Amino acid sequence: MDKWKFYTSNEIKPAGWLRRQLEIQAEGLSGNLHRVWPDIRDSKWIGGGREGWERVPYWLDGFIPLACLLEDEEMISTAKRYVDAILAMQEDDGWICPCSKSKRKFYDTWAVQLITKTLKVYYDCSGDERIPDVLSRILKNYYELLRDGEIRLFGWAKYRWFETFLALNFLDERFGEDWIRDLAQILKDRGFDYGSAVGSWEKPRRLWRRKTHIVNLAMMLKSEAVSHDLLGEGYADEAERFRRILDRYNGTAFEGFTGDEVLAGLDPTRGTELCAVVEQMFSYELLFAHTGENRWAEKLEALAFNALPATLDEDMRTHQYVQMVNQIACQKTTPFTPFGTNGPEAHLFGLEPNFGCCTANFNQGWPKLALAAFLHDGNTIISSVMLPCVLKDQGVTIRLETEYPFRNRARYLINTDRAFSFMVRIPSFAKNVVVNGTEMKNEDLRFEIRPGRTEISVGFDTVPVLLPRPNGLFALRVGSLLFSVPVGYDKIPHEYTKRGVERKYPYCDYQLVPKSDWNYAFADTDFTVSYADISDHPFSQSHPPVTVRAEMQKIDWGLKFPFRTVCRKTPKSQTPVSPAEEIALIPYGCAKLRMTEMPKI
Ligand SMILES: [Zn+2]
Description:
The protein is an alpha+beta fold. Among the domains are: 37-191, no CATH class; 464-595, no CATH class. The chain contains 18 helices and 25 strands. Strands 2-7-8-9-14-11-12 form a 7-stranded antiparallel sheet. Strands 15, 16, 17, 22, 23, 24 and 25 form a 7-stranded antiparallel sheet that branches. A hairpin with a 6-residue loop joins β8 (396-402) and β9. The longest helix has 18 residues, at 274-291. The protein is globular. The relative contact order is 0.11. Zinc ion binds at residues 273-275, 357-358, 361.
């Protein structure tokens, strides 16, 4: 049983900087993908001839909650149009994917699993009562085909079997039929056992394998949490065991893993795929709700406030396939690639650099984070991630005013006609927690709220910390935010057409060519934090909402052979080659070109 439950987009409404971020997403690629990208516009899912597998379900998985959170009528009707077309495709036996009966045997049923996850999201947002029956028919048919050996679990479906459980758990709660548990067991038995792959995570190799595939691993972290109840198994916190091993051998400063696109070790110039960032966030949202453990929410914040905004341009029109922690340029490195099995343009900002999965899948990142702001259980409401929003839950309204993570203050304005218990999660890095003017212990806050109006003001301090990283490097972190030396750049657009897909301004490719120095080291451990207004683009390199001034000195970093636009994994020399200068470091999520892991001299 999940410890806490999620609210829906009817109950949580974004405000402040979060609302603005979602509006940018809607005005950017997410809200226009069905106009500009043939794989969504003309997909087989809606009767066209283009991709009929993961791309439409991926996109809808983010587009639907985005539309509902913003209460955007045009987007809501677009979502409904897509869902109606998909439902109309369902065959008499329950099969719903755009694949003829004779070809089902060869169809990777990852798309069956994914469309059930997406339709569950649609149900949560719309309450459309057609969905439970549609889901039941899809999965009962899936069960019968697998049981009778008419199809096999292979390819991505074998490695992502647990994704089916989001819909299966819902169906079990609603219908409780025996076949649901039987299908759960078949999926677990025939699906890949990640426990058998641990050894391959310890020695990352440039060999494309599904068991070291970064997106599979990001998804896999939630597998035990979503499946063990239905399977009648206990909970052993496998996610923590797996995460620790992945982190030890492939961890990044933003609490993710390198994977370009298989695990890539501890080099801050290797890539992390965008799909893995949003999938890891979703895993941590579910793990926090399932266990109530603070550590998962803190890791969620680290990814959401650093890795996600860093790899999307500030207008959210373009994205990278992979981001690098030390990223001094985003320029093609042809003919060689700095990435394991990804091409030399995977770190460009564009419509679908390297491959189009992230173009469809990135959409879920911000909307699902917004939906994780508050959780509930019985008569308890939990403030899980401090995000500006309004919660409406059966006679309770909570307006959360905050500029977190850019400031460490929050004001809860509560108006309720019923009594309830209220919990505010306090991150472990918080110091000097003050509530309504009174100093408190640094731990989660609990309140018994009575009917009427209540106001709770929470504030705490965060201090700059130089986190030791592998290879003798350090990263500066203040609360959930990582800070980087920003590198100035020229943005060079490139319009072209490839495989029938037009890259046209503003959804074309961009190379970022550096025009300021990047070869720095930390020269002191005194840091000064200063604040500015949050601009119209919360994660802007030119107007960062918070900066940290630090004494830095240049060193001879050197370039990684044979590249002219990739820095070395570690500096060639740590001897200063310039006097100390004061540099304003900015949030990692704001810095499109940046140095994050640097030595201390
Ligand atoms: Zn991807």
